[in-house]
Amino acid sequence: MRDGFADALKGLDAEYVEIRFEESHNTRIVYKGRSLEEMSRARNSGGSIRALVRGSWGFVSFDRLDGLADKAALAVQEARLAGDESFTLSPTGPVVDTGAARLENDASAIPLAAKKDLLDEYNDIILSSPKISSSRVGYQDVRRKVIFANTEGSYIEQDRPDLTLRLTAIAGDNGEVQQAGISLGSSGEFSTVEGLHEKAGEVAGRAAALLSAPHAEGGSYTVILDPIMAGLFAHEAFGHLSESDFVYQNEDLRRVMVLGKRFGGKHLNIVDDATIPGLRGSYRYDDEGVPTARNYLIREGVLEGRLHSRETAAKMGERPTGNARAVNYLFPPIVRMTNTFIEPGEPSFQEMLSDVKEGVYARDWYGGTTSLEMFTFSAAEAYMIRNGELAELLRPVVLTGNVFTTLENIDAVGHDLEMVQGGGCGKGEQFPLPVSDGGPHIRIRNCVVGGR
Q: What distances in angstroms separate CA 80 from CA 8, 57, 332, 423, one per listed residue?
């Protein structure tokens, strides 16, 4: 295959051309209540070619490898029709590397019947719990092999396995409906979703308990976020603002996101790092063949970096960071996060609680939206904090605010870092991209909490 790619890339009248080709094996199992809505296995393969001519890209996707040289020529032709400026991609050396992922318990090797039997057990536990009216169970594993080659001499083969599971319990009573769930994931290790029987029962119990929980009184509180919510904040509220294609295209944001500007205290560090083994957002090279790195977005409260493709790095005079990613071969790579998290600090959760006279403890994500620097997040579970101790369970609460003000108001960062591997990131019609996010418990002063 390497020789075929090299031949297709020869003699093209373009500044740069790349080929990506992938083969994937996908398993999906979906329940809605007692109904098994989907159980499927699929194989897929295809690729794409991207060509740069006079500052514009041509892009061609395909599902057959025959006529690869003609497809490359078509991508060059498309780019030439649009090209009217000039820029040079940020330089990176050619890379030649091949390797396969090593998994202890490869999900793709587990029989489909065994996967279904395990999910049946979880679904039965949820549905047999008091006050549970329905459930949602969604499982998927994917084994992808991605091959990359470009006109600069790179040739890379890498595996990108992925696995996700979402368990949701829906409780109902006298017209009231509440739900609770857990999301889990891994880089293809099936053991991540084994032995969750107790957790399935806890999910059902939490959904039922929310039916009788009171609403929070709306207002401004000291709020403690658990690692799941801290990771959501790091990813959704700040991480997307660090994606340089977004920054480059928004003049107002460029005036705010100035490198060297202080956004928080010295205890605040936010990182994006695809080099961490075993996480869903990890890989050796991005979809432009750039090696991954540990990238500090905020270091000791100061904006230190942002995430780049080779194009955005060149246009902004910065270095590529290995964050050009495509959800599959049907899309060109764009700037995306990998594993984004708040680094741990020193205080324990109990120490953070002890200083709060009245506040809110927000746990687990329920949903949310962002609009530039403004965010609105829903926590799936919350508790009042009274005189340094956790008090009554609350209905799901909504947190809202300005991300930059909120960063300044983070006054404590705990030591208990956890990475969250469920779900996926969406951007530019590319969803769901495997990512991880996380953090320790963090405490925020003057956070607006929506009540009844």
A: 18, 8, 17, 39
